């Protein structure tokens, strides 16, 4: 890889990763404004996240087409009322985030020189895990009401807000106990998220350290 290509990875797409990471934190902050009147701010936050995901994954025409195919319908369905549209939007959001995570992880391991772009990209994947599982929890609750106890209301916006919070609590293995999964599917998802979250951190740290050492060793040999 040439020096110009390496810089383009770290400074060009790096800005996109920083923006994408900021979009996740914006979405978390907007959860405080979720209410039964419609949660417009939260929907706008979701739309911002989906658009940034599309931009982050659009390094080639093929990836751009995949991102647009998944992300644009997900954004549109966010503003369509009804359970069916909510489930469809959740499914497409999960597909979009899984797609962008695969793209980002491939880029990380194809560029062994660890930089701020690499760190931001790695954190983006971790943040995306929480969002993916929050969408999965919400879909389970919609399909099987009562799958979770401790929710503050039955309105779709409040359920989404509570399960968004529960997802990140589970991902970080905090286990506050104010919201609990009671259905078999919900419990299986919670167990899987806790395991994946911890394994990702372990593999991420080991991988970044290994990549950093390999680059230093190759430079010292030269």
Q: Which properties best describe this structure?
A:
disordered N terminus; 222 residues; mainly alpha; single chain; 78% helix; two-stranded antiparallel sheet
Helix content: over 70%
Largest sheet: 2 strands, antiparallel
With strands numbered from the N-terminus, the spatial order across the biggest sheet is 1-2
Domains, number:
1
The number of helices is 7
Task: State the total count of DSSP E strands.
Answer: 2
What structural category arises from helix and sheet content?
mainly alpha
For the record, give the distance between the C-alpha atoms at the N and C termini, rounded to a whole number.
Answer: 16 Å
Overall pLDDT score: 84
- The H-and-E topology, N to C, reads as HHHHHEHEH
What fraction of the residues are assigned to beta strands by DSSP?
under 5%
The rough form would be described as globular
Unreliable stretches (pLDDT < 50, length at least 5) are 1-12
Q: What Rg is obtained from the alpha carbons, in whole angstroms?
A: 19 Å
What's the short story on this structure?
The protein has 222 residues and is mainly alpha-helical.
Walkthrough of the structure:
With 222 residues, the protein is mostly helical. It has one domain. Helix content is 78%, strand content 2%. A two-stranded antiparallel ribbon has the order 1-2. The two termini are 16 Å apart. The model is unreliable at 1-12 (pLDDT under 50).
């Amino acid at each position: 890889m040439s020096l110009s290509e390496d810089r383009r990875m770290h400074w060009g797409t790096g800005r996109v990763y920083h923006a994408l990471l900021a979009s996740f934190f914006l979405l978390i902050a907007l959860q405080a404004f979720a209410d039964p009147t419609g949660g417009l701010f939260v929907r706008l936050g979701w739309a911002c996240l989906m658009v940034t995901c599309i931009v982050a994954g659009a390094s080639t025409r093929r990836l751009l087409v995949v991102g647009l195919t998944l992300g644009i319908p997900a954004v549109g369905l966010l503003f369509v009322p009804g359970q069916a549209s909510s489930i469809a939007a959740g499914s497409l959001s999960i597909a979009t985030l899984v797609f962008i995570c695969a793209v980002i992880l491939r880029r990380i391991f194809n560029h062994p020189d660890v930089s701020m772009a690499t760190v931001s990209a790695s954190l983006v994947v971790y943040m995306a895990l929480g969002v993916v599982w929050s969408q999965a929890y919400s879909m389970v609750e919609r399909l099987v009401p009562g799958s979770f106890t401790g929710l503050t209301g039955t309105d779709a916006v409040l359920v989404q807000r509570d399960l968004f919070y529960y997802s990140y609590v589970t991902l970080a293995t905090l286990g506050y106990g104010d919201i609990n999964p009671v259905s078999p599917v919900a419990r299986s998802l919670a167990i899987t998220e806790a395991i994946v979250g911890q394994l990702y951190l372990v593999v991420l740290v080991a991988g970044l350290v290994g990549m950093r050492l390999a680059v230093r060793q190759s430079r010292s040999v030269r």
